[in-house]
Give the backbone structure.
Amino acid sequence: MTRRGVHGVVLFAVALAVAGCADPSGKVYRFDAQVPPAVQPAEADKAYRAAVAQLKAGDYAAAQANLETAVRFDPQHGRAFNNLGWIYYRNGQLYRAAHAFNTATLLLPDHPDPVSNLGLTLAAAGMWDRAVELQTRALEMDPGNLGYQSRLAFAQVKRGDELASLSDLLEAVLTRTTREDWARWAQNLLARLRSSDPAATSDL
């Protein structure tokens, strides 16, 4: 299949996958607008490297522009889609974030980060079942990853799962995290679980 054909399949699959997180305006965002006449991987990598440096410097607007350039030059640049999704998520643009992350999962099938990032985005949209499914999948791909454990525990608590079934995850978060907010959250839930208090909070 040609690169153009693969990209067409990717766009179709993404449209189906994120239908539950649609922009209420009904607007469909496409990353292939103004696609250059031919794929130019070298130019895409150049824009991607510039974006990574800008992300590290905290210049998110410039990084977004370069990442959008990267995916126009190479619609199969999975890392660019993943980073672009993170910027959209950070900006509260959940539909665009889900679209970018889902594209990254298709282009980087062996990489758990886009899977977890898509789960995080759908969690922000209140799609807890799908969020749990994706965080579980990411954790299966990278067992012991604290970030995925934390995201999975949070999604399960928000979904209303029994705390008793989450004790191992909560213990992992409490003992391994360096984030004070996550530690307090896990400690609070574990304390309520040990005291058999059913009114455990999911607030973070």
